[in-house]
Amino acid sequence: MEPSAEEKQSSRLCHEDGDVEPCSYAMQLVTSSVLPMVMQTSIELGLFDIIANLGQASASEIASRLPTKNQEAPIILDRMLYLLTTHSVLSCSAIDGDERVYALTPVSKYFASNQGVSFGPLLALIQDKVFMDSWSQLKNAIIEGGIPFNRVHGSHAFEYPGKDPRFNQVFNTAMFNHTTVIVNKILESYKGFEHLTRVVDVGGGLGTTLSIITSKYPHIEAINFDLPHVIEHAVAYPGVKHIGGDMFVSVPKGDAIFMKWILHDWSDDHCLKLLKNCYKALPEHGKVIVVEGVLPEIPEKGSTVKAICQTDLIMLTQNPGGKERTRKEFLDLTIGAGFAGIRYECYVSCYWVMEIFKKTFNHNHSTMKVPRAFRVEQKSAA
Predict the structure, then answer these.
(1) How would DSSP label each residue in 111-135?
(2) Most buried by CB count within 10 Å: which residue of 51, 164, 211, 259?
(3) Residue 259 exposure: Cα atoms within 13 Å on the Cβ side
């Protein structure tokens, strides 16, 4: 129905009110917990896989592929899919006035099973009751001190999985999926493994990272190093040896040490202790290969920074002193542990691949071909 002249005038007045957008955004924030809940349900139902298999699908077509006789299912699904479309997780079109038809976007492809892996299990971990309960203690942790996770569960987040087999499985599945996606992307761009002979993955979990690396570089002798309760569930991979231990005591020797999402788990003091152990385990020209998000010094808008900031708050609530860091903070850790500096080698899927090196990097005498994208940060000469 065409709006009346009075309605049009009222609409113009509303849009001239500068508070419309702030108020709308405030209401979006108020209801922001809805999106991850709908995402989680969509993953549990396999909606993204159904749409991927069909190419595009209506809510009725999707419901017909679910184990349900609920006549309301298509209506419920359509409301969920509509929401996901408003967040660009899905695209939507209507053909000849019929039902809305939904399709995947570049974002939702990360939640459909791609060669058996996706970001879905990582969302399940973050939404798991064990993690979610920690948020209830954030205010008390600010006022009284302590780590929210510890206040709820009586131990820190890396001890707890050893006592809870269900959560241990949730955690390991999340890390397996995230690692498989990210490491495969890293190997498309990063060439720093080509000339290595022995690589130690510190905090390597079940060995997924090294299995991917050695599949591409079978000449590498690979050592997967993690806590004993993790290693006991590790999978046997060709060329990968599993060793249990405590990285804050010592780490196995290698010509390179790999760490993905390890430094952000721990406080500066823990990281210094760990990096000093890495320094001892490396030869003179050895390096630590680190995969982490990097925060800008001043907050910026955009999905990358928001993702890293949100991860930073997850580290705050769940881990012992864990946090995301700026370039300066990474350099301070590097120098504090005795290393010479950092090379920012390549940027992959919102993470930097960094090389922390023992010897001062010399552009003129290096045998390495240095891409323009390199950013080298090292200790200034005295």
Answers:
(1) TS-BTTB-SHHHHHHHHSHHHHGGG
(2) 259
(3) 25
- Residue 192 makes CB contacts below 8 A (sequence gap 6+) with 256, 287, 289, 345, 353, 355
Helices 165-189 and 120-127: crossing angle in degrees, nearest 10, is: 140
Euclidean distance between CA atoms 296 and 282, whole angstroms: 30
How is domain 20-110 classified at the CATH fold level?
Arc Repressor Mutant, subunit A (1.10.10)
* pLDDT tens-digit series, residues 314-346: 999 999 999 999 999 999 999 999 999 999 999
| pLDDT tens digit sequence for 165-198 | 999 999 999 999 999 999 999 999 999 999 999 9
- Tokens 């006991």 — which residue? 232
Q: Residue 242 forms beta bridges with which residues? A: 224
Report how far Cα 94 is from the mean position of its chain's Cα atoms.
34
Confidence of residue 12 (pLDDT cuts 50, 70, 90): low
End-to-end CA distance of the chain: 76
User: Can you tell me whether residue 352 is helix, strand or coil?
Assistant: strand
Closest CA to 112 of 330, 24, 121, 321: 121
* pLDDT confidence bin for 367, thresholds 50/70/90: very low
Instruction: Report, as an integer, the average pLDDT of 119-136.
Output: 97
Q: Show the tokens assigned to 72.
A: 């309301």
252-271: average pLDDT: 98
Spell out the CATH class of 119-357. Answer: alpha beta
What tokens were used for 293?
């998000």
**Domain boundaries of the chain, sorted by first residue:** 20-110, 119-357
pLDDT bracket for residue 285 (50, 70, 90) = very high
Q: What angle do CA 47, 49, 53 make, to 5 degrees?
A: 120
Q: Which residues are catalytic?
A: 264
